[in-house]
Amino acid sequence: MYGSLKSELETKLSAIKSEGTWKGERVIATPQGSMIRVKDGALVLNFCANNYLGLANDPSIRAAAVRGLETRGYGMASVRFICGTQDEHKHLERMVADFLGQEDSILFSSCFDANGAVFEPLLDEESAVITDSLNHASIIDGIRLCKAQRWIYKHGDMRDVEETDPDTGKAAKGLERCLKETAHLKRRMIATDGVFSMDGDIAKLQEICDLAEKYDALVMVDDSHATGFMGKTGRGTWEHCGVGGRIDIITTTFGKALGGASGGCIAARKEIVEYMRQKARPYLFSNTLAPSIVGGTIRCLEMLTMSTELRDRLETNTKRFREGMTKAGFDIRPGVHPIVPVMLYDERTAMKMAEALLEEGIYVIGFTFPVVPRGKARIRVQISAGHSTDDIDRALAAFAKVGKELKVLK
Prior knowledge:
By secondary structure, the protein is of the alpha/beta class. It has two domains: 19-48 and 308-405, Aspartate Aminotransferase, domain 1, CATH 3.90.1150.10; 59-306, Type I PLP-dependent aspartate aminotransferase-like (Major domain) (Aspartate Aminotransferase, domain 2, 3-Layer(aba) Sandwich). The protein has 15 helices and 15 strands. A seven-stranded mixed beta sheet has the order 3-11-10-9-8-4-5, sandwiched between helices. A three-stranded mixed beta sheet has the order 1-2-13. The radius of gyration is 22 Å and the shape is globular. The mean pLDDT is 95.
């Protein structure tokens, strides 16, 4: 049987390569950071990690992880309700809830698991989940696991409209239209990314919450690309948008700004969290978060609660890079987020530019189909608080040089 499958896979792999959308895996030989060493020995500046606050190799977080390892062990070898709950798990859950402005929280091995858990217990056949068309794959997969009707609204469109989407040629509805058309159902939940990872744009949470209250719907936000640095004190998009107390469910990761290792959570109203402890399958049937991750994440939240220095530095670095790229003439998506998509549109150009930038000592990756739609290829630059002003300026110079060589810039 494998002979025919092998032949089919070889054909498909060859097609991926010929289309210029092959996603190779570069190997690095150092800890994650703003400066990394690639396998050929070259030191390069890293501009494509989710290491927003530069904490992935922070000494105090490493030390806290080691303490967790030494005092609570390597692993739990159990799920939470059997013998997998330590005092430090409860401590972290309390800290996360407080940091995210929610009543309680529940830990998962990743935010992907949290999003896989959140919909099925709450939504049945008489419910609807209304989801932004550009939501993360983990939200899409989580929705597929529940029995609720799925309604998709055009990205960021809050209106009571139905019209043809110029990008897809298909009929697309606004959020308010979806809410009106599902009014007969028992329960509705609006699900959205807080920050959309490919474009760096921020969900219109004020308008979403207004519509949710008008039409009696729940609001769920995946804040993975915001927790730790968006908002005046880094609490996330809910703080940035001024909707504290109006979000019913927040999911997020510890694997980006919060130290960059792994782990995630659902933070929500207390009854929702308690119900998740009884019904969420990835929680009930997966091992507990390792003690070292718990210890490191606790330390990270302590640091972010004491000072906004890192998120302030990230904001300054982001503004400098965005202004420099705009001045150079690049087509970047406007915004304030440290995700800066450099739009190139052509797949091969994106891959060539990423390779040429690596030669200049700038580590970035070309994003092509199916990670982004066809014809929307780009390089997604991610700024970090770990970058110095010189690092930012060096990246700007390299982009300008390579952009001219590849005729991306005139």
